[in-house]
Amino acid sequence: MTNLVASIRKRLKKFKWSVASPEIASLDQRPAALTMLFPDESESLREFTMTNYTGHGEIVDLGAWAGSSTLALAQGLAQNKKVDTRRKRIHAYDIFIWEQWMSDIPWNTPLVDGYRPGDSFLPLYEQQISEYSHLIETYPGDLNAMPEFPYKIEYLFVDVMKTFELANSSLQKFFTQLIPGKSVVHHQDYNHYFTPWIHLLMYRFKSHFKLRKYVNATPSTIFDYVSAIPREQLMQSYSFDSFGKDEFEAAFEYSLSITGKAARPSIESARVMSFIHQDRWEEAEAEYAGLKAKYPGKDYDVQQIESILKTRTYR
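RE: above sequence
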């Protein structure tokens, strides 16, 4: 988790916000929220639920953490005059269990005081979303043990695909409820070195999605769901072994082709990380040499790969 802590520290230093609530012009001033999202990511969530959400399906937040993504979705929805907001349309999922890496982050706020590894931080989340609790249904627990979501989904925010197992659970329990021609999938970890399976899966299903927006200089990329993925394909359990060499290479080339220049080091680092996740360390070392030569500066994601290769520790 050392690398995850470093990633968050970098965000906090760059944007100077450990407690922040960036706004779009049409929203009233809101109280600050504890967040690990970039400002433009939060804005994308609010903007969709305020201006584009139609009510044809539900809004799902996979990986709500302390509630900043849920809060952004709710702030926008509360301003949406086109849909009935008298019931809970936002469904937020997280395990809500504090981990050591969360304590290692210099949040500079009393909101997190007293939390220890193993504690439930559900009260922190509930505090942050309290103003909009009438719009939100919360599901604490392990996503891998959750049943399939029972309703159609119009907007799916995915910040939970931290392992192949969680990626499979997301496909089997939530992607099955997407609406062709209507749903939007927001991948918060699309441009992040740690999650190569996202590129493999989205390439496998690329004919069913169309790029909607690359959120510049953030990990987020957003897609429109244009045609139905056969249920039997979603219900499979995927692993690195599910993808041949040609498809593997094509997946990362595809991701590079649809995102911006700022995402390139992250996506190429994710390719190297795929070898590390499989304990193919010698291949990772060889691929990293080319990556380092291509990005000789202090790119964060490349540095994280270097650090992992030096210590051979990342879990």
